[in-house]
Design a protein that fits this description.
Helices cover 81% and strands 0% of the residues. It is mainly α. Helix 1 (4-28) runs parallel beside helix 5 (97-110) and helix 6 runs antiparallel to helix 7.
Length: 155
């Protein structure tokens, strides 16, 4: 039997790693990496290939600890793993509020607001408080996006 809590925990681990890598990309190049690049897909067909990509990114970062593009790619890879784990947890237990919430947060961080809003719709039915939490994060992300657009126009 699937263990939803284990998959939720793994999702949280990958989500945290993704946020750390993304923060490093933003630190090195704020204007380029503040928003996720949803148009560029990572080149992999299965989990083994994704694991190899991640190892390649980690090796590259050992040589150049300031490579913002590689940090951004690494964050995308970790977000993909987080989504997989949350989806697995939800398949085993659709009422797993934490997995539902963090799946929505992950979609938001990846730059997929429609998917994040779909998670909000699910959450507000099973746990209105968690739904409200996700909605407030989504609204904050929208404000940040508008602020960044203003900043880019000034540059």
């Amino acid at each position: 039997k699937r263990q939803p809590k284990i998959h939720s925990a793994l999702g949280n681990l990958y989500y945290e790693r993704a946020l750390k890598a993304w923060a490093k990309a933003v630190k090195e190049d704020r204007l380029t990496y503040w928003e996720p690049d949803t148009l560029r897909q990572l080149p992999f067909k299965n989990r083994d290939e994704l694991d190899k990509l991640i190892q390649g990114y980690l090796n590259k970062l050992r040589a150049d600890t300031l490579d913002a593009e590689t940090f951004s790619q690494l964050s995308q890879a970790y977000f993909i793993l987080a989504v997989e784990e949350y989806q697995t947890a939800i398949q085993a237990d659709s009422l797993d509020t934490m997995a539902q919430l963090y799946l929505g947060l992950t979609y938001s961080e990846q730059g997929y607001p429609a998917k994040a809003m779909a998670q909000y719709e699910i959450l507000k039915r099973i746990d209105p408080h968690s739904g409200d939490l996700l909605l407030s994060v989504l609204k904050q992300k929208e404000k940040e996006k508008k602020s960044l657009e203003k900043l880019k126009k000034r540059k």
